Q: What sequence folds into this?
């Protein structure tokens, strides 16, 4: 064993020892379980849930304006009162002049009032506000669904990418085992004098190259595993082993037109934008309310009491006044404020309409692309599967020929390279199919 081979073996031992340590805390994870964990732990989901709570609060704030507003007012003050009448007198003491005023005392004056205000007509402001916040609340709920669906798609893609890495690590390990066997056979044939020493060295080089490829594949797997852990919000010390296998069964026929129709009906992004459009209509109603008078009912009832003693002043409270009336306000000139508010609301409404049309076109494009990728992946699975069968048979025959001395180790390696490439392409096709199916489900609004 040369120095380079020894270094590679040491690295492999370190990697395998780390893997054994991680295996103590591995999690066999299905795709459905991964999605469940993500929906429970992911911070983006929690943030989206809080936005729904904010929407509920805004609805409650607007609803409060429909109800009477009753307020209680308390007032308390201290007044100076004159006890004895008389004029001020002055006298001098030590060169200073002093003034004596009549004796004074203080009196407490307390008041109690109840005020009632009820909006009767606001020119459509309350109806517009109510319509706007309710639509905004529904848009927030749809926004939560958007975040949820996007997270599910991300988890699916990350899960299948990790499954792809697992399959490639397994394939790379099998290739390393193959090259070890070829190296052993080459050493045996060299001892028998049937091959030249250079063939043994070539087999050793091939083994080292595959061991290096295995290390790189394992590192890539760990990177993908960490990406999935970040989506699931779980500890990075725990290892994840995806247990779902990619499907190789034939997919049902895809009707692109039907898929597009379903997507335009189900995609929550469109539902969210439609609610935002309704919220814009409500904002326009609020802006236009500035053109109309506002009418409100106002009533108040007041009590007042006074006494030198603070507590007695409250006991002496007596009815002092009351009033009931209507309050009408109408803006004659506001510096074109209402006009500009209406102009702004109308432009925002048009922007919402354009955003809805734009998203519909994007969804059609996404569904078409997802359908094309799914169909292409299905064809690749069929073709690469046949290629794997042929490459496996060729590799089996080549190994038998090498054992009999009919071909060199380099020729065996060439067949093995072809087999590894065929298996890699088949794995790629299987995983690409699962990702394409997940993307199509997402594009059509079917996320689970």
A:
């Amino acid at each position: 064993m040369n120095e380079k081979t020894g270094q590679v073996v040491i690295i492999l031992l370190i990697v395998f020892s780390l893997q054994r340590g991680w295996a103590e805390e591995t999690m066999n994870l299905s795709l459905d379980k991964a999605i469940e964990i993500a929906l429970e732990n992911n911070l983006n989901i929690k943030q989206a849930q809080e936005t729904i709570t904010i929407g509920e609060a805004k609805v409650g704030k607007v609803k409060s304006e429909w109800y009477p507003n009753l307020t209680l007012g308390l007032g308390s003050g201290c007044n100076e009162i004159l006890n004895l009448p008389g004029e001020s007198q002055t006298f001098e003491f030590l060169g200073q002049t002093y003034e004596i005023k009549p004796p004074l005392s203080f009196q407490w004056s307390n008041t109690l009032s109840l005020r009632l205000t009820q909006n009767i007509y606001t020119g459509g402001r309350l109806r517009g506000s109510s319509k706007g916040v309710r639509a905004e609340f529904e848009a927030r709920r749809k926004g939560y669904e958007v975040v949820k669906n996007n997270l599910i798609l991300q988890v699916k893609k990350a899960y299948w990418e990790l499954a792809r890495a697992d399959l490639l690590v397994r394939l790379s390990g099998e290739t390393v085992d193959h090259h070890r066997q070829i190296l052993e056979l080459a050493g045996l044939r060299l001892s028998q004098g049937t091959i030249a020493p250079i063939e043994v060295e070539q087999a050793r080089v091939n083994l080292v190259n595959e061991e290096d490829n295995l290390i790189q594949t394992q590192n890539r797997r760990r990177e993908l595993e960490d990406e999935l852990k970040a989506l699931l919000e779980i500890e990075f010390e725990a290892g994840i082993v995806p247990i779902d296998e990619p499907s190789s069964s034939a997919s049902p026929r895809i009707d692109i037109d039907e898929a597009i129709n379903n997507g335009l009906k189900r995609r929550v992004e469109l539902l969210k934008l439609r609610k935002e459009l309704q919220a814009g209509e409500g904002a326009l109603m609020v802006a236009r309310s500035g053109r109309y008078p506002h009418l409100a009912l106002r009533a108040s009832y007041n009590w007042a009491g006074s006494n030198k003693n603070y507590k007695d002043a409250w006991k002496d409270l007596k009815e002092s006044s009351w009033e009931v009336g209507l309050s009408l306000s109408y803006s004659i000139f506001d510096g074109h404020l209402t006009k500009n508010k209406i102009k702004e609301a109308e432009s925002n409404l048009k922007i919402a309409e354009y955003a809805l049309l734009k998203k519909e076109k994007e969804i059609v494009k996404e569904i078409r692309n997802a359908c094309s990728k799914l169909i292409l992946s299905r064809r690749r699975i069929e073709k690469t599967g046949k290629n794997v069968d042929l490459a496996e048979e060729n590799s089996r025959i080549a190994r038998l020929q090498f054992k009999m001395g009919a071909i060199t180790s380099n020729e065996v390696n060439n067949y093995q390279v072809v087999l590894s490439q065929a298996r890699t392409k088949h794995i790629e096709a299987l995983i690409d199919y699962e990702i394409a199916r997940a993307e199509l489900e997402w594009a059509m609004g079917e996320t689970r």
